[in-house]
């Protein structure tokens, strides 16, 4: 018995390789070019923190130098690692996770903003990248 041939088409909601920026009108957001290019946590003159909320495997492939890495699911348990007096720039791959984290952090009193376009936009803008180990940093 042969399998019948069925017509198939992609669902119109499927992205098909286009990278879209996730935004929310209720969440404070800034474009990548409004974010400092480098963060030095040891320098008290730099009152900002870049918080990367991607998963461990994403971080290992490429991240912004000087960023703090706390995966989204761990943020509520690790807010003691963040400084209430610093502005927090929150970044993920494209914006979905960072929007949720900014909503949470602002609700509990942090000055946090979502970085529009995430690490994909960071890489496209030619911002510095670092990777764990000997590999070349790349955001996928």
UniProtKB/TrEMBL annotation:
It comes from the Bacteria. SUPFAM superfamilies: Rhodanese/Cell cycle control phosphatase. Residues 48-131 form the Rhodanese domain. It holds the Pfam family Rhodanese. PANTHER family: FAD-DEPENDENT OXIDOREDUCTASE, SULFURTRANSFERASE YTWF-RELATED. This is Rhodanese-like domain-containing protein. It comes from Nocardia arthritidis. The lineage of its organism: Bacteria, Bacillati, Actinomycetota, Actinomycetes, Mycobacteriales.
């Amino acid at each position: 018995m042969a399998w019948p041939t069925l017509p198939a088409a992609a669902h119109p909601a499927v992205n098909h390789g286009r990278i879209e920026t996730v935004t929310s009108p209720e969440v404070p957001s800034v474009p990548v070019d409004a974010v400092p290019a480098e963060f030095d946590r040891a320098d008290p003159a730099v009152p900002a923190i870049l918080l990367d909320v991607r998963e461990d495997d994403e971080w290992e492939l490429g991240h912004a130098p000087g960023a703090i890495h706390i995966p989204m699911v761990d943020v509520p348990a690790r807010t003691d690692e963040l400084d209430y007096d610093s502005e927090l720039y929150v970044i993920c791959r494209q914006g979905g996770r960072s929007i949720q984290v900014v909503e949470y952090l602002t609700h509990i009193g942090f000055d946090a903003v979502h970085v529009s376009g995430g690490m994909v936009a960071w890489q496209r803008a030619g911002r510095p990248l670092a990777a764990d180990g000997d590999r070349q940093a790349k955001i996928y």
